C-alpha cells in the first residue's frame, strides 16, 4: 500500500509539472459565409440609443439568425469541430450613450447583449453524438465597446473582464474555472462608412446606422475545460490510474500465489 501511495504521488507530481501555466487561450472563432453583410447596427435618430443584431440577408433590417462557420481551437476538440456550419444569433442594445472621439476613432460604449451559435448538424466525438441544435457556444455581455476609424469601413465590437461582464455556456465545454473572459467581433465592409453626427467634431448621438460583415473570436484565462472529449492531461491521469490499478492487481496475485 505504501508503495502504491508513493507511485501515485510521483505520477501526480509529473502531471502537475508538465501542466502549462495559465494563459489567455483563444478557444473558438467564427467566420462569415458568402452572402455579404450579416450584422446590422441601427441608431435611433438623434439619440444615444441603438440596437444591433444579426440579419438574415445582406440588406436585412430586422433581427434574425445567420449561418456562419464555427470552430473550436483546442487540440483535443479541433479535429471534430472545425468550420462546422452553425446558426449565429446576436442581439444587443445601447441606451443613453453618446459616441465619443478617441484620436481618429469613434468609440461607442455601454453595449449590452447576448449571442448563440447552434449546430446545424450532428457532431460525433468518440462514442458521443451531439444532435443538430446543440449549443456550441452562447453567452451574454455588458459594458462592451464598438469602435473604428471615423469615416472608415472597418471596426469591431469587443469586451474584456473585469471591465465587461461576460458569461459563456456550451454543451462541449465548461467555463466554471475561468477567471478572465474576452471576445472580439471584427467588422469589415461597413456601409455606409463608420460615422456619427455631426460628421466632424464632437458626436451628439450614438454611432450612425450601418451594416457589416462580422467574424470573431472568444478567449478565456485559463482555458475552458473540454467536456466533450478528455483533455490530454485527463488522458494522462487515466493512463497513470490504469497503470496503478494494474500494478496493484499484479501485486495481489503474487501475494496470493506466495
List the SSEs and their pairings.
Elements: H1 2-18, E1 25-32, E2 39-43, E3 50-54, E4 66-72, H2 75-78, E5 84-94, E6 100-102, E7 105-119, E8 123-125, E9 128-130, E10 135-149, E11 155-160, E12 165-169, E13 173-174, E14 180-191, E15 210-221, E16 225-226, H3 232-257
Antiparallel strand pairs: 1-4, 1-15, 2-3, 2-15, 3-5, 4-5, 5-7, 6-7, 7-10, 8-9, 10-11, 10-12, 11-14, 13-16, 14-15
Helix pairs in contact: 1-3
Summarize the structure.
By secondary structure, the protein is of the alpha+beta class.
Structural key phrases:
two-stranded antiparallel ribbon, twelve-stranded antiparallel beta sheet, alpha+beta, 258 residues, single chain, disordered N terminus
Would you kindly provide a written description of the structure presented here, covering whatever features stand out?
With 258 residues, this protein is of the alpha+beta class. It has one domain (22-228). Helix content is 18%, strand content 44%. The protein has 3 helices and 16 strands. It has helices at 2-18, 75-78, 232-257, and strands spanning 25-32, 39-43, 50-54, 66-72, 84-94, 100-102, 105-119, 123-125, 128-130, 135-149, 155-160, 165-169, 173-174, 180-191, 210-221, 225-226. Strands 1, 2, 3, 4, 5, 6, 7, 10, 11, 12, 14 and 15 form a 12-stranded antiparallel β-sheet that branches. Strands 8-9 form a two-stranded antiparallel sheet. A two-stranded antiparallel ribbon has the order 13-16. A hairpin with a 2-residue loop joins β8 and β9 (128-130). The chain is globular, with a radius of gyration of 24 Å. Residues 1-22 and 233-239 have low confidence and may be disordered.
Amino acid at each position: 500500500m505504501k508503495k502504491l501511495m508513493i507511485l501515485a504521488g510521483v505520477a501526480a507530481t509529473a502531471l502537475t509539472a508538465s501542466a502549462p501555466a495559465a494563459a489567455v487561450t483563444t478557444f473558438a472563432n467564427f467566420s462569415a459565409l458568402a452572402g455579404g453583410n450579416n450584422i446590422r447596427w441601427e441608431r435611433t435618430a438623434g439619440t444615444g440609443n441603438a440596437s444591433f443584431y444579426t440579419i438574415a440577408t445582406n440588406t436585412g433590417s430586422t433581427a434574425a439568425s445567420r449561418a456562419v462557420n464555427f470552430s473550436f481551437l483546442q487540440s483535443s476538440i479541433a479535429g471534430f469541430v472545425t468550420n462546422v456550419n452553425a446558426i449565429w444569433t446576436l442581439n444587443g442594445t445601447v441606451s443613453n450613450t453618446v459616441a465619443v472621439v478617441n484620436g481618429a476613432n469613434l468609440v461607442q460604449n455601454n453595449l449590452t447583449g447576448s449571442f448563440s451559435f447552434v449546430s446545424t448538424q450532428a457532431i460525433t466525438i468518440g462514442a458521443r453524438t451531439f444532435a443538430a441544435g446543440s449549443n456550441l457556444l452562447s453567452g451574454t455581455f455588458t459594458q462592451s465597446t464598438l469602435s473604428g476609424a471615423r469615416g472608415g469601413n472597418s471596426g469591431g465590437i469587443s469586451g474584456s473582464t473585469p471591465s465587461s461582464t461576460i458569461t459563456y455556456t456550451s454543451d462541449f465545454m465548461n467555463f466554471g474555472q475561468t477567471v478572465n473572459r474576452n471576445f472580439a467581433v471584427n467588422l469589415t465592409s461597413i456601409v455606409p462608412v463608420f460615422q456619427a453626427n455631426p460628421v466632424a467634431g464632437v458626436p451628439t448621438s450614438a454611432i450612425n446606422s450601418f451594416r457589416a460583415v462580422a467574424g470573431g473570436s472568444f478567449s478565456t484565462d485559463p482555458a475552458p475545460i473540454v467536456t466533450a472529449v478528455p483533455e490530454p492531461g485527463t488522458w494522462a491521469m487515466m493512463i497513470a490510474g490504469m497503470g496503478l490499478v494494474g500494478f496493484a492487481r499484479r501485486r495481489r496475485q503474487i501475494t496470493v500465489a506466495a
